[in-house]
Amino acid sequence: MITPPLPPVPPVPPVLFDTEPTAGTAIRIGALVPLTRPGWVEAGRHLLAGLELAVRDVNDAGGIGGRPLELVVRDTAADPRKAAAAVDELARLGVAALAGEYHSAVARAVAARADALGLPFLCSSAVLDALTEQPTEWVARLAPAQSRGWQIYADFLFGAGHARIAVAAEPSVYWASGTRILRDHLAPRGGTVVELDARSLTPAALCDELVDHGATALLLLTGHPDPAVPIVTSVRRDERLAEILIGAPAGQPEFAEWATLLGEDSPAIPFLRYLPEHLGPLGARVETALRGRLAEAPSFVAFEGYDTVTVLADLLRTHGTDRARIAESWPCVAVEGTRGQIRFSRTPDISVWQWVWAPVQVVDRDPAEPHRFRILHAG
Fold first, then answer.
1. CA distance 111 to 140
2. What is the pLDDT of residues 68-124, one digit of tens each?
3. 44, 300, 312, 317: which has the fewest C-beta neighbours closer than 10 Å?
4. Which of 82, 83, 116 is nearest to 10 (CA)?
């Protein structure tokens, strides 16, 4: 996951609308997704597919009070400054709300700008706990907070007998936060976490460090595909590390590109994903539709996209397009999504409205059948 530094929020310009909405005109939602490098393009493609499918389903069911829903899509390319500028543009275009984003540092920039402009933002996928510096009424989130997901991952590691953990990390607020969560959660049980600089160490040198530290697990807190893929290849080829567990809590192995690039080295690398063990009727129907749209199995990110529009459509039907009324209504949400009933609440140390009970799994690709996922642990 690529997490550039968060830029300062510039002064807020006046928000001017291109047109006043009238009966029958489309209700616009601004969609922010990484569609070009250095963004995680595959994640962006899945997120957009979920958003677009949900808009199609809303419109096929009659829209919002007879008005069609329309996505106004902007590519963030994992660039916080580009994303903040897109928020300004979308605000001037008169969108009722913002949706999407995958990269945590970019979502922080979007959340800060949305809060400053008074524009509701439902974040689909970014997990960083501190999505805004101060509590805000304008932002809600579907993805579980990083502290919850990564603590569940730490429980999985400890339960599997791994107390000496190494992380191959690149500098970013997201990776630093993940390392801190792991260390704080494992330390009371005697676990240790050593940080290795994935930017300065070659894959071969990193293998030497793993041997020297006696690590039993290596976690990839790095960008994909580089340097994550070369690191995995090097570790898998090193006979000294035949017993080491490689993990990727941020979810790199979720996407088909992982298996394509790594081949026989792709399985048995546990990661976090946000799906229930079994999908209900809505989730199963959406899975089939997403598979047709993507021409491959949908990731959990695609379901997050679908649920984002589902929530916003419900708010628009109930409370109209007034931005302040939408933001005031986060605590009133009770919507059946693809992965369970969605409700938002305030959570200690989380500055936005949070879906607390999003499902969390630790899974990996089955070595016997790499396109099948095994559930290793759930929380």
1. 9
2. 999 999 999 999 999 999 999 999 999 999 999 999 999 999 999 999 999 999 999
3. 317
4. 116
The C-alpha angle with vertex 162 and arms to 161 and 167, in degrees rounded to 5, equals 165
CA–CA separation, 103 and 111 (whole Å)? 12
Closest alpha carbon to 163 in 173, 155, 171: 155
Phi/psi at 189 (nearest 5 deg)?
Answer: -105, 15
SS3 137: coil
Q: Classify residue 81 as exposed, middle or buried by CB count within 10 Å of its CB (0-12, 13-18, 19+).
A: middle
To the nearest 10°, report the CA torsion of 184, 185, 190, 194: -60
pLDDT tens-digit series, residues 196-243: 999 999 999 999 999 999 999 999 999 889 999 999 999 999 999 999
The rounded Cα 296 to chain-centroid distance in angstroms is 19
CA dist 112 and 98 (Å) reads 12
| Residues 3 and 47: beta-carbon distance below 8 Å | no
What distance in Å separates the CA atoms of residue 164 and residue 217, rounded to the nearest whole number? 7
The DSSP secondary structure of 233-296, one letter per residue, reads: HHHHH-GGGTTPEEE-TT-GGGSHHHHHHHGGGSSS--EEE---SS--HHHHHHHHHHHHHHTS
Transcribe 21-70 into DSSP letters: --TTSPEEEEEEE--STTS-HHHHHHHHHHHHHHHHHHHHTTTBTTBPEE
At 241, list the tokens. 């590390």
Joined together, the tokens standing for residue 307 give 């649920």
For 245: left if phi > 0, alpha if psi spans -120 to 50, otherwise beta; the answer is beta
Strands 164-169 and 192-197: parallel
Q: Report, in this order, helix, strand and coil percent for the chain, each rounded to 5.
A: 40, 20, 40
Rounded to whole angstroms, the Cα distance separating 159 from 29 reads 43
